[in-house]
């Protein structure tokens, strides 16, 4: 027992300065202690674990407060830049969560979850549970250290699972403050000059207009935009192509004979066109439909337009109108492209009538010509008769 006390005394020293603090040194060099440390544990390799009076703790460093971020530090873990110097959180003796330097991205710490999902769990606060009325702005932020949790910069994941990029309080599953780039490695900043990429912007090309801007940096390709409608489990391919917009802005829809059945010719085009009621009108841009009644909001604007009234058009050409199942909750819509075949048929019928009229006019013209020729012949005959009669009278 006496020998054990001697060994402890050999490796541990305590210095008490009146009115200041007690200092404890454990390990190598027991008579030398880090300045201002209340506890200093030094290993045989020279590394220190220290605790300061104000609660700062350094593992692998004697200066836990030293950093380049300008942030206050309570715990500073300094490991060597190698994979065997990880910070480990365990359940039992099984490592579940690691912070490892020089793995993946060199020169930075990388987080590794050994089993399961990494998660940030929010406890109930103020009586609100997750997904049950809790504030959508509370969440996890990845941002520059100069921007706090409430800043409008960086990436925010709220407790409801909403993600905001440059948005502090996202109101959608994903909300982005600037352009979204896709199609290549690396991000896309607003209005960049690039190639072989796509991007979606809002109010960037024409600030103040409020337009959604879909941009295609076609690069060396032919360019354009293509739309697909996939079944459950389908993979995007030209088999599911429904429309595209070409480089000149022309809109093309699927119209292959191989995807059409029950094909029938359009009839009575002209009579349908004659039954149409084209009108001019002002269309309201901000409205609310409640129990079948429409009210216009305070920010409502009107746009002068020309077209048809959907309810009227439905009586003449229902194929060109989307009639809602419940018009107290949904508006009527018109497919103006659906009028083209009817207009085409009307023109064909009208041209047929014009051709028939032309044939009749030609016949009348021929009859008039024949009658004119006959008249001329009759006049000639009459003149000869007059001459013959006159000569007989003269002889008498």
From TrEMBL:
- Asked if Flavoprotein is a keyword of the record, the answer is no
Q: Which key words are in the record?
A: Coiled coil, Signal
Q: Signal peptide span per the entry?
A: 1-22
Question: Which segments does the entry list as coiled coil?
Answer: 340-377
Q: Which residues form the Peptidase S74 domain?
A: 255-361
Q: What is this protein called?
A: Chaperone of endosialidase
Q: Which organism is it from?
A: Spirosoma endophyticum
């Amino acid at each position: 027992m006496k020998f054990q006390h001697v060994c402890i005394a050999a490796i541990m020293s305590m210095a008490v300065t009146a009115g200041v603090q007690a200092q404890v040194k454990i390990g190598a060099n027991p008579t030398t202690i880090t300045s201002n440390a209340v506890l200093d544990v030094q290993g045989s390799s020279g590394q220190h674990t220290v605790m300061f009076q104000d609660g700062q703790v350094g593992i692998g460093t004697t200066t836990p407060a030293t950093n380049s971020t300008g942030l206050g530090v309570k715990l500073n873990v300094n490991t060597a830049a190698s994979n065997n110097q990880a910070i480990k959180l365990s359940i039992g003796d099984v490592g579940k969560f690691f912070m490892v330097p020089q793995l993946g991205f060199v020169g930075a710490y990388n987080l590794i979850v050994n089993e399961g999902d990494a998660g940030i769990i929010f406890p109930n606060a103020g009586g609100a549970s997750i997904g049950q009325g809790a504030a959508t702005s509370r969440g996890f932020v990845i941002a520059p250290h100069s921007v706090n949790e409430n800043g409008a910069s960086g990436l925010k994941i709220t407790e409801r699972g909403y993600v905001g990029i440059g948005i502090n309080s996202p109101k959608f599953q994903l909300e982005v403050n600037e352009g979204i780039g896709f199609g290549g490695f690396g991000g896309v900043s607003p209005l960049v000059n690039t190639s072989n990429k796509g991007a979606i912007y809002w109010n960037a090309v024409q600030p103040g207009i409020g337009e959604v801007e879909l941009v295609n940096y076609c690069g060396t390709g032919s360019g354009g935009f293509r739309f697909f409608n996939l079944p459950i489990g389908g993979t995007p391919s030209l088999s599911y192509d429904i429309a595209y917009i070409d480089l000149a802005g022309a809109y093309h829809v699927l119209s292959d004979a191989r995807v059409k059945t029950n094909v029938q010719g359009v009839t009575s085009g002209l009579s349908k066109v004659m039954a149409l009621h084209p009108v001019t009108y002002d269309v309201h841009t901000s409205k609310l439909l409640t129990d079948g009644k429409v009210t216009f909001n305070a920010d409502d604007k009107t746009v002068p337009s020309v077209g048809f009234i959907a309810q009227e058009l439905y009586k003449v050409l229902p194929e060109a109108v989307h009639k809602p199942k419940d018009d107290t909750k949904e508006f009527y819509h018109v497919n103006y492209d659906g009028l083209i075949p009817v207009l085409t048929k009307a023109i064909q019928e009208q041209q047929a009538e014009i051709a028939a009229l032309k044939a009749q006019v030609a016949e009348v013209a021929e009859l008039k010509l024949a009658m004119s020729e006959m008249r001329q012949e009759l006049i000639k005959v009459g003149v000869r008769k007059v001459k013959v009669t006159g000569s007989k009278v003269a002889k008498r």
